[in-house]
Amino acid sequence: MTYQYVQQKLGKYQIELEPIEYSNNGYTYFVSYYDLRGDGYSKIVFFFYGNYKENRLMRIHFHSGEPNL
User: Fold this and answer.
1) Backbone φ and ψ of 11, nearest 5°
2) CA atoms of 30 and 14, how far apart (whole Å)
3) What is the C-alpha separation between 13 and 9, in angstroms, rounded?
4) Is the pLDDT reported for residue 68 higher than 70?
């Protein structure tokens, strides 16, 4: 699953996008946060890893707690 695909489905719920990290070997890594309920407490965190052309979903975490990231 790519970042573009996730954005098509969940983009309106995105609350934060961390800066993309670029490595010397051409790979990228970044994290995107989504709040599906809009309550600031229940966040889904998507970790993406890939290259300069395409970033694929590496893992998903669910966070419930403090409203601040």
Assistant:
1) -50, -35
2) 14
3) 9
4) no
- How far apart, in Å, are the Cα atoms of 49 and each of 41, 43, 60? 26, 20, 12
Predicted model pTM: 0.82
Give 42's strand partners: 64
Residue 27 and residue 49 in contact, taking contact as beta carbons nearer than 8 Å: yes
pLDDT confidence of residue 4:
92
Average of per-residue pLDDT values in the chain: 89
Domain edges within the chain: 3-50
Q: Which residue has the tokens 């970044």?
A: 30
- Mind giving me the DSSP string for the chain? -BHHHHHHHHGGGEEEEPPPEE-TTSEEEEEEEE-SSSSSSEEEEEEEEEESS-EEEEEEEEEES-S--
